[in-house]
Amino acid sequence: MVKLLIKDGIRLDGRKPDELRKIKIEAGVLHRADGSCYLEWGENKILAAVYGPREALPRHIQDSTKAIVNARYNMASFSVEERKRPGPDRRSIEISKVTSEALEGVIFTELFPRTMIDVCIEVLNAEAGTRCAGITAAAVALADAGIPMKDLPVACAAGKVDGTVVLDLTSGEDKEGEADLPVAIAPRTEEILLMQMDGHMTYKEFEEALELALKGCKKVHELQREALLNKYKDFEV
Amino acid sequence: MVKLLIKDGIRLDGRKPDELRKIKIEAGVLHRADGSCYLEWGENKILAAVYGPREALPRHIQDSTKAIVNARYNMASFSVEERKRPGPDRRSIEISKVTSEALEGVIFTELFPRTMIDVCIEVLNAEAGTRCAGITAAAVALADAGIPMKDLPVACAAGKVDGTVVLDLTSGEDKEGEADLPVAIAPRTEEILLMQMDGHMTYKEFEEALELALKGCKKVHELQREALLNKYKDFEV
Amino acid sequence: MVKLLIKDGIRLDGRKPDELRKIKIEAGVLHRADGSCYLEWGENKILAAVYGPREALPRHIQDSTKAIVNARYNMASFSVEERKRPGPDRRSIEISKVTSEALEGVIFTELFPRTMIDVCIEVLNAEAGTRCAGITAAAVALADAGIPMKDLPVACAAGKVDGTVVLDLTSGEDKEGEADLPVAIAPRTEEILLMQMDGHMTYKEFEEALELALKGCKKVHELQREALLNKYKDFEV
Amino acid sequence: MWDTEVKRVSAVKRDYLARLAKEGKRPDGREADEYRPIKIEKNVIKNAEGSARVKIGDTMVLAGIKLEIGEPYPDSPNEGAMSTSAELPPLASPEFEYGPPTPSAIELARVVDRGIRESKYIKLDKLCIEEGKEVWIVFIDLHVLDYDGNLFDACSLAASAALQNAIIPNERHDIGKNESLPVGSPPVSCTFVKYEDFIVVDPCLEEDAIAQARFTVALDENGDIRAMQKGLSGSFTVDEIKNNINRAKIHAKNIRKLLEE
Amino acid sequence: MWDTEVKRVSAVKRDYLARLAKEGKRPDGREADEYRPIKIEKNVIKNAEGSARVKIGDTMVLAGIKLEIGEPYPDSPNEGAMSTSAELPPLASPEFEYGPPTPSAIELARVVDRGIRESKYIKLDKLCIEEGKEVWIVFIDLHVLDYDGNLFDACSLAASAALQNAIIPNERHDIGKNESLPVGSPPVSCTFVKYEDFIVVDPCLEEDAIAQARFTVALDENGDIRAMQKGLSGSFTVDEIKNNINRAKIHAKNIRKLLEE
Amino acid sequence: MWDTEVKRVSAVKRDYLARLAKEGKRPDGREADEYRPIKIEKNVIKNAEGSARVKIGDTMVLAGIKLEIGEPYPDSPNEGAMSTSAELPPLASPEFEYGPPTPSAIELARVVDRGIRESKYIKLDKLCIEEGKEVWIVFIDLHVLDYDGNLFDACSLAASAALQNAIIPNERHDIGKNESLPVGSPPVSCTFVKYEDFIVVDPCLEEDAIAQARFTVALDENGDIRAMQKGLSGSFTVDEIKNNINRAKIHAKNIRKLLEE
Question: How many contiguous H segments (helices) and E segments (strands) does chain A have?
């Protein structure tokens, strides 16, 4: 691995270590869904839709005390270089699970007993960081659908590349780098809704990376709020 | 493709362009089924059985206004040269769908709300034209079961081979020829219940082929009626 | 096949034809299960657990006249030399079926209408004779769970190796030998609850093998009873 | 769980059959030890390498044989392989459903398979094309067309008859002329059920439905035992089993004659 | 069974649409023979070999093309292969569900596939890498994003547009430079539905929901017929079919222009 | 949806546990930062290449290692591969069901897998047999036998212990003598749950059942972080996470000692 991922403090795509990729967010882009969001994050293209709260079916899954939050993360077969077989794999099942849990943490589910809130996250083009992008888009779609939430969740990853802690990894950095730390928070309280990590970090590096991820989350959160203020009627994939 | 499929107006199996293969139809051949039919059409050997109307289960699929018509087209694993894996493939799912719809079109389904009428079509030996043969056999089985129908549907294909419009294609003609046009009709009104086509036809050729298919349907319809008049008690596969 | 499996009346593992492998049975080894049993039979290591009687779900499978006995035989992926893919295969489905039926034969199922009694048999290490070992362990687990039974069923196989009728075949004997005859009985009445056979036996050999299997069953039955009298709180795999 | 496929019989019907049984009578008037008429037709499916249609009373089964080239098992590099499956399509009975094979269908296929395999009916050692590389795999597909009881015997018989006249499709694979599938002497299977302490051979539909125990034995040409299967939750005594086998020997001889016609 | 996916329409709505139909009016004010606005954008997915987003009214479909190297079919050793699948994800409509493709999704994909295949739009004979060993397999994946009626035409159009600008990813496999996927002239599909004896082109969501019969025809550049599919339980007369085809010829010409822009 | 597997706890029980929590007490009397007794037994399954049975309190897990020869991934032609799966069989708990792996079982297996993979515990680069052609694939199968809480740590520990004594079965494949599986230093995983603002290590069954948030961290021999997973719908503050990691460092050291005994 002689290839340097960071040279003179600048990453291969020209970003500084604490810089986000370009992000574009649009709310209310779909006709049928109760709420929706289109998000571009670097080369990631993500569409999120929300349906509900609606009666949970089949009935035996209903919870008499609260709504069930059912997020599904799905990659289009053409969203990655090697064609992905349609249908859920183990990775997307795990992401769907932690995403559902992270979103459920901010929704006032107790207001809608016996219902289900479906959150559909479709990755149309993937380029690292899709789970954070998906949660971020889903949050906007939930707000667009008028689902009452304690806070508007947001996600962003930090990581470690060439020994340096950096924000928002690219595909190359994720693959060649040393660690990836995706984090989702409730931005007002900074409470952690999702956190996963794989790689190798000292405790000190982790503290630094977490701080960076939180900063990233807050910047993305501003873009979420803007998008909700300016709902477009059409969007460009 | 130097092989000629039609020579001096005669096809490889000796038929004229507007001639059907040999067809044999027997009604009421099964002991358990409410209605049944055994049909040989060229080398095709088809068995159809009807069960119902009976309570549609599970209940959530019931329609309070009419019976559900559920036809299943299935090929026995040994019915084709290359052994077919048991279970439905995409082709048989599509054929089951269009067959169900074609049959539903003639059944007085509104007389039997909340019920299901199951139509099982088993292809025991296949040699081109099985979907038309299946619908034709299913119609006889429905009549044998006493299901009230507006008309006794019947199906037959026409196609285009060596530039000539012909009736009732063989395997070789289907594979080497230019187009196949399976058609199912309600014979009294000539209304079209099923029509599919793949290949290449000018509009004029289509008109000609459709006319031929309708003629074929009417001939087959005569055989259906005869079979219903002479229910055999046993049959030879 | 020049390899002799029996030499001077002694088998490759040192046993006489009518001798069982070493068997160890412990009851009540699991914390969560309503009843459980750990059994070692030669190199076989088997764990059985019983849950129930509990409400049978989904409801449409309930039998208003009796409990449903649902035994599942499952091999751990690492229990055999060639790793087994997780999940049921055709062999384990058949064993589950005949095991369920054999156990149902002795349980007073009519005392628990609308319920289900689940019997889980996990083969942790397999070395021939697992179906008999599984039934034997399941019987102890059922007794440990306090399920009322007419009798405590027990199973043991006999077979034919090098022309000799022998008790309790090893892997090698099963593979190289001439026949295998697993039998489960209700020991008090000697009624046959399960019997399968594959191989080649004359009627006389069968009579001899069956007698040997019944003797084996009775010896194993003694060990079952001892185990139920001395429930251990911990066990060694 | 495993017998949810068993059709429910009304209490009235059950009582009626029980009363008949006590008098040693069967619902269709047969003796306890009497088969229904058996009819075998061979070579009925053109696209199959072998086929047979068997009727036992109103039960009708179609067996089709297909041969494919595949790899041998590592521990028998010189031998072909066989695979048996049974389809119980909704066509044949109102209780059958679409979907993957049920436990009943799997048991049925495996019992038929064991009878054929253990009697070495197919000479698998003659089905090697290239050692360790290519062998013939024989697929025996059992298609039930009309279910009126006793599928075990009907399926076993159909499989035996279909194999009897099967060919090896060498021509389709450009490896020589077609030839007959090498077979030995077929197994013959006999099935008994017990209800109300009454044991009958060749159960009809109603007897299948109320049967408490079932016993199938596959016998070879010498009357030796090649496979057995006791099923259902009822039990047999040792004497009943022995008696069944001895009755089976006689039936098997008669059925074998039909097969050799 | 097969149309359980069809959304239930309230009786009131159904009556309202029927009354409109009797006056020859459609719920969105269009003429019977009028398409909604069509919008095509190509090359929208970086990781796909070709892609297009198509909107017909508020219906939105994304088609992505992927090419993989695989084995040819034994009967066409010199030709590439194609495979079309359609996903109807819950994102696009409250009636769609996760799981394996429904019969409706399979029919949709197969009708789109036949249009492309029978018009020989993809030049499969130019997709051979090594005879009998390696060919390109073209995967056409149709991803419905917003369902507001007439998926057949939207999917067909998206597939045609995505193929138009697709590349062969030789570089990814180290077998030369990337090149354009060789294509001919695309098929164009037109769909009609009939309800209350009223036949309309390009059904919107409500019309799809109450349609009694559906007819799709795929036409080539000469207006010749390459594929047809009649669906649903209602019927068409012979004249209605013929009339549909003739109306389709005119629409196809207009749509073809959009595709060539 | 994703937590339907979570066992329902009665309101009374829930209140009782909440009251205990407010006083900093746990249902089994442990300190918040106290593990239950841990017991490790290695080499318990003869047919496995490596195995270990781990008990944490009454939770019992069996890990079995199998090695198979397979193809390497194209992007690492010199390296072996690993695959981790977890079975939650109905034997171990009344809430577990037969069927394909649930989301919970998949998450569990993937978290265990990441700990092992990221700490480079298995030296995959030493598992190449022939570059680009044949490598060893290490299957780690986690079989839960008795579920009384904290499966993440029990499964992680069982996997580590089973790998520690695993062999490469060269003899079975006639490619030399058996040898030890090359491993480095194992990861050690610590799991915390939070309920009623009370954070405890090594949750027992009742604590698992009412947990609002879960946190697992896998540490290497230097106390560096190799994998983390926050689960469930509750949240942790940044300080809580940091505190958990620091507590985990101490526990991991102790557990590591047990593993090295």
Answer: 4, 11
* Nearest chain D CA: its distance from C2 CA (Å): 17
Res B60: pLDDT = 86
Residues of B in contact with E237 (CB under 8 A): 189-192
Half-sphere exposure of C120 (CA within 13 A, CB side): 27
| B66 lies in some domain | yes
Residue ranges of domains in chain D, CATH in brackets? 2-11+25-260 (3.30.230.70)
Q: Is residue B183 within 8 Å of B210, Cβ to Cβ?
A: yes
Q: Give yes or no for residue E1 having a pLDDT over 50.
A: no
Residue D9: its pLDDT value, please? 75
Helices and strands (DSSP H and E) totals, chain D: 5, 12
CATH number at residue C47: 3.30.230.70
CA distances from residue D22 to D18, D29, D34, D150, D196 in whole angstroms, order as listed? 6, 14, 17, 22, 7
Specify the pLDDT at position A4.
81
Q: Do chains F and A touch (3 or more CB pairs under 8 A)?
A: yes
pTM: predicted TM-score of the whole model, two decimal places: 0.95
**Paired strand residues for E63:** E52, E142
- Percent of the residues in chain A that have a pLDDT greater than 70, as a whole number: 96
- Determine the residue among D91, D172, D173 to mutate to test chain B binding: the one whose Cβ has the most chain B Cβ atoms within 10 Å: D91
Q: What is the DSSP letter of F233?
A: S
pLDDT digits (tens, 9 = 90+) for E142-179: 999 999 999 999 999 999 999 999 999 999 999 999 99
User: Is B91 a member of any domain?
Assistant: yes
Q: Which residue, among C176, C183, C195, C211, would best test binding to D if mutated, counting the most D CBs under 10 Å from its CB?
A: C195
Average pLDDT over residues D42-70: 98
Residues of chain A found within 8 Å of residue F216, distances taken between Cβ atoms: none
**H-run or E-run covering E205:** helix E205-210
- Domain span including residue C76: 16-232
Nearest 5°: phi and psi at D69?
A: -90, 130
Q: Does residue B237 lie within any of the structural domains?
A: no
Predicted-assembly ipTM surpassing the 0.85 threshold: yes
Q: Which of E47, E51, E82 to mutate to test the interface with A (most CBs of A within 10 A)?
A: E47
- CB of F197 within 8 A of CB of A167? no
Chain A contact for F214, CB < 8 A?
A: no
D6 pLDDT above the threshold of 70: no
Of all residues in chain E, what percent carry a pLDDT higher than 70?
A: 97
Q: How does pLDDT run across F110-150, given as a tens digit for each residue?
A: 999 999 999 999 999 999 999 999 999 999 999 999 999 99
Q: In the predicted model, what is the mean pLDDT of residues D34-61?
A: 98
Q: Which of residues 149-208 of D touch C (CB under 8 A)?
A: none
The confidence band for D3, taking pLDDT boundaries of 50, 70 and 90, is very low
How many distinct structural domains can be found in chain B? 1
Q: Does E233 touch chain B (CB under 8 A)?
A: yes
- The reply to whether C104 falls in a domain is yes
C205-237 pLDDT, tens digit each = 999 999 999 999 999 999 999 999 987 544 554
Interface of E with B in 30-69 (CB under 8 A): none
Query: DSSP string spanning C3-60?
Result: --SEETTEETTS--TT-PPPEEEEES--SSSSEEEEEEETTEEEEEEEEEEEE-SSGG
Say if the Cβ atoms of A206 and F245 lie within 8 Å: yes
Alpha helices in chain F (DSSP H): 11-22, 103-118, 151-164, 205-210, 238-260
Using a CB-CB distance cutoff of 8 angstroms, which residues of chain B are in contact with residue E199? none
How much is the pLDDT for A177? 93
Residue of chain B whose Cα is closest to the Cα of D61: B237
E141 touches chain A (CB under 8 A): yes
* Partner residue facing E114 (CB), from B102, B198, B203: B198
- In what helix (H) or strand (E) does residue A27 lie, and over which residues does it extend? strand A23-27
